[in-house]
Design goal:
By secondary structure, the protein is α+β, with helices and mostly antiparallel strands. The chain has one domain. The protein is built from three helices and four strands, in the order E-E-H-E-E-H-H. It has a two-stranded antiparallel ribbon with strand order 1-2. Strand 3 and strand 4 form a beta hairpin. The longest helix is centred in the C-terminal third of the chain and has 15 residues. The chain is elongated and about 60 Å long.
């Protein structure tokens, strides 16, 4: 669904994060946080400027490639997102995790 809002759900044992390409386009064009880099203030116009997505499918493909781009150690932006989300869940008292840490098993 092109217009699907950002959703995070568990379906058939999988954590799924999804957004429709039209919603992704909207998010890019209407980002309210100037610090992210998608919006900037133009003093001459006395207004905020944002990027215009001219081909939502091509833009979504570019975002997908950015998310899959690997650092030297093989990690991606998605790995970093999940790592931060797991730490936050633990800090917030998520159920299903033990109280003590254990040696890693490789």
């Amino acid at each position: 669904m092109k217009d699907q809002p950002l959703t995070v759900e568990i379906v058939d044992g999988e954590l799924r994060i999804s957004i429709g390409v039209s919603r992704l386009k909207f998010a890019c064009e209407h980002c309210p946080d100037e610090n992210i880099g998608l919006t900037k203030y133009d003093e001459d116009l006395d207004d905020y400027l944002s990027y215009e997505v001219t081909d939502e499918r091509a833009f979504a493909d570019g975002v997908k490639l950015a998310l899959q781009g690997e650092a030297e150690d093989g990690t991606t932006m998605v790995h970093q997102l999940l790592d931060k989300a797991m730490v936050k869940a633990i800090e917030d008292g998520a159920m299903g995790i033990g109280d003590n840490m254990k040696p890693q098993e490789w």
